[in-house]
Amino acid sequence: LKHYMIAYNLNQYNMAMTASLLTTIAETLMILDKIERAKQCCLESIKLIALQVGAYYLLYRIALKEGLLQEALNWLKILQANNQKLKTLKKKKIATDILIDNDKILIYSGSLYLKLDKLDKALECYLSFYKNKPKNIMVIEKIIDIYIKKSELSQAEEFLSDLIRQYPDNERYKNKLSVILSKQEKNNQQSN
Description:
Elements lengths: L1 H8 L5 H17 L3 H14 L5 H12 L3 H20 L13 H14 L3 H14 L4 H13 L3 H14 L4 H21 L1
């Protein structure tokens, strides 16, 4: 950290390099659990170069560390928008900036929405991921669980039946399907 600060205080780098240096300092500060200073460095980096991913990703991680889920989600939304813009450019604004796979962003977002009990938004994220990677079991299980929580049992049954076709020996899936079918039967009896 000391050497990063010396380099920063020389004040001799262009905006992109200074923004990159500030993001690196912020990451180091975060590791040292100096959260407020890390946030300040991220925000200074963003003031220099708004179209970046690195500082927003750190702000997302900082918000998570602080348990500020909605704030983390807000940073993630900006990160996702910048990520998409940067993918279309031929050259990044900051040479050391990172791009994050959109599917990872969908998983991060879905997880946050679940924690915030925003089931429709979580489902939207996981279904978007599913369209790109329909074989991801973790995501399929999340989709099933959300449909069950929303009492949309026929959709849960559909995804679960697909899983059982792929993994016919999985007892957990079979048990979950029997629970769903019995709930559907109970609902049908109550509506009659």
